[in-house]
Amino acid sequence: MSHANYVVRETVIVTLRDLVEKDYLHPEKITVSLSKAGKKQPVDLGAIAYVKRKFVQGQNHSANNPYLVIEESLIKHRRVFLRNLIEYIVTSGYQETSVVAIIGRVRRAFNYIDDRAFSASFLKDTEQSEVAYREVSKELKHKINSNLLTPRQAEITQVNIAFIIQVAHGKQAADFMVANTVKFVGDVIVTAPRERKELKYAYNIYKSLAEELTSLLVKEKDLPFLLRLPDYTTYLFPYATHRVTPYCNRPTYAYNHELGRLVTEQEYFKKCPEKKEAELRENLKRTTKRLQDANLDPRAKCRRAFAATAMQSYQMLFMMLTGAYASEIAQLKFDGQLEFEKSVISKSYRAIKFRAAGRIVQYDLASGSVSLFRQYLKLREWVLDGRKESFLFFGLQVKSWVPVPVCESAIRSFQRRKIIGIFMPENFEMLTARQFRKTKSLFLHEQPDIDRKTVADVLNHSEETNERSYMEVSPEKARDELTSYWEAAHEASKHIQDVESEQSCAHKPIAAGHCDDYQNPQPAIESPPIEPDCRKQYGCLFCTHYICHANEDEDIHKLFSLLYIVTGVLNSVTDTGKANELFLMLSARVRQILLQIKMKSQIGCEKVDKIGEQVFKLGELTPYWENRLQRYEALGLIFLENQELEGLWKK
Fold first, then answer.
1. What does the alpha-carbon distance between residue 245 and residue 243 come to, in Å, rounded to a whole number?
2. Is residue 246 reached through a cis peptide bond, with omega within 30 degrees of 0 on the bond before it?
3. pLDDT at position 435 over 90
4. I need a labelling partner for 56 at 20 to 30 A (CA). Which of 389, 403, 565, 583 fits?
5. Would you state the pLDDT for residue 586?
6. DSSP state for residue 153 in the 8-state scheme
7. CA of 25: how far to CAs of 79, 289, 563, in Å?
């Protein structure tokens, strides 16, 4: 990429307080310091006033300004927009993390606009902003129709541009433009809960890292550290790049990672035969001195790195145990006092309370986790080394013991750079707070003695939010139910027989087929959805004594009549949960039997197709199921038209 004509412009670093207290004649020069949001460099707000701007990395920009601009591309009326945006931010009282999100949202909107011909006129007045908004909407619609964008992606772009129009011209003008332009609505990607075995695996890894490193650091043990993880052990040496685990092989020649010591001269010479022995001796002397210095100084650089890893592991554990977001744990205040009380969840839990953003929040920890939390407090005290810090959780500045606020990006980076592919498999998906919350919610909902209000209270949100976003089926439960579904369906094929006419007399005719031991019902599968009962014909297909005569039209007719009723019930009752519980597996069982009959012979295939049309197209049921249908209709149950039901059974 060429940087011709792009320059590093003059900038000024300001804080949120500065934005409140001062006015800026040239807002295009502003970069905002947002260290509490985890931003090491100031966020460049003013760059969006330039149509021609580039974000560059490496040595092509100054330390505090990664944006290069063409100064002649400055749009003067965007200064007005920047002042309006600053006023919007300061009057809304946003925290620094929210300000980062707002600036990112605005920047993405301008990135889209500035690639179009109308970028110079956009926001100059309401008329030209409306023209731009309409053109953008038309283009987004075309991209959706061309499968270049999803409706959700188009919606996000459109909403972001509407937001900057609102900031520039006011809500009334923005609402008018939005109301008179096509709107895109796309499905939000729903966060799926993680399987509990995955969370348990990750929990054990983070717990081992946290506990082992805490013990080694607080007791000021000598390096290298022997780190014991659930499935393996490894040595930690002062070099941060040295890692040897089942998932990572980054050895350092000066170390013997198998025995946990420095190599001897002879071992070193063998590892590096291409180098001179004198050079290797000097290297080994420097490495030896570095190791000795690290063991003499409990505040050595490498120990600070290990302490940061341990603290971030505790942060992950706290999020996993409580379902708290990173933004929440960043606000928790700690005054040195701990108060535990009985939890509303169960006797095996303890509730712990903290102050966050001026309010009291409560988290429930399993009793066994309380001791883990106390270990964190020991590490916290050791890290601070007498320094005062009001927040419970914090990070550390690069190459320093100075505390910095916790931020979500730091937790993501910690997983990606320090854990996954090193202490965990490379293909392990990064964990998120939303996954923790969903899994915790599902676990609590599955406990019979915990009501919905309690679950909502534990996760610090409303019942409505919990019901809307946190009541899915866990992956394990869905898999178990699907397995049971197919096991029930395939087991049904064992009940199909081809019989001679005289043999069939030994089998008692029933509404769903035949029975070879009437009045002696026995379940064919464990925990059937409908218990076999000779007085109620629905459960017959789940009985070991059920028999279907594959070569008799009558039994096929009975099965189709039963399927007609079941399909109708599933598509007409209001209590879908109960209907699915009772009839979904029954429907699968009937369909599987009919499928097996079709597969047995060409004659069977022809019979199934013929009788299926007779029932589902013409509505001709056997007398027993016809009578049952009339009873349902008398109760007010409205079935679909036969043509619609025909389409359903063939699916």
1. 6
2. no
3. no
4. 403
5. 80
6. H
7. 9, 56, 76
Residue 136's Cβ-count burial label (10 Å; 0-12, 13-18, 19+) is buried
Three-state secondary-structure class, residue 255: strand
| R_g (Cα) of the chain, nearest Å | 34
DSSP, collapsed to helix, strand or coil, labels residue 503 as helix
Cα(422)–Cα(206) distance, integer angstroms = 12
What DSSP string runs through 330-397? TTEE--S---EEE-SS-TTEEEEEEEETTEEEEEEEEHHHHHHHHHHHHHHHHHHTT----BSS-EE-
d(CA 99, CA 39): 11
What's the Cα-to-Cα distance from 255 to each of 239, 244, 297, 368, 472, rounded to whole Å? 10, 11, 20, 38, 50
Q: Pull the structure tokens for residue 410.
A: 């730091």
Task: Give the containing element (helix H, strand E) for 70.
Answer: none
Contact at 8 Å (CB) between 516 and 503? no
What does the pLDDT look like over 503-552, one tens digit per residue?
545 788 998 889 988 888 888 877 777 888 888 778 888 888 888 888 88
Q: Tokens for 307?
A: 């302490």
pLDDT at 78 over 50: yes
User: In 521-599, which ranges are E strands?
Assistant: 546-549
Q: Kindly report each contact of residues 494-500 with a partner whose C-beta sits within 8 Å and lies 24 or more positions away, as own/partner.
A: 495/524, 495/541, 495/546, 495/547, 495/548, 495/593, 496/548, 496/550, 496/593, 496/596, 496/597, 496/600, 497/547, 497/548, 497/549, 497/550, 498/549, 498/550, 498/551, 498/600, 499/549, 499/551, 499/552
Q: Are strands 395-396 and 403-404 parallel, antiparallel or unpaired?
A: antiparallel
Mean model confidence pLDDT for the chain: 81
N residues, the chain: 651
Nearest alpha-carbon partner for 616 in 650, 587, 646, 574: 646
Other residues' Cβ atoms within 10 Å of the Cβ of residue 636: 7
Query: CA–CA separation, 170 vs 160, rounded Å?
Result: 14
User: Collapsing DSSP states into helix, strand and coil, what is residue 3?
Assistant: coil
Q: Give long-range contacts, CB 8 A cutoff, 24+ apart: 629-636.
A: 629/564, 629/565, 629/568, 632/565, 632/568, 632/569
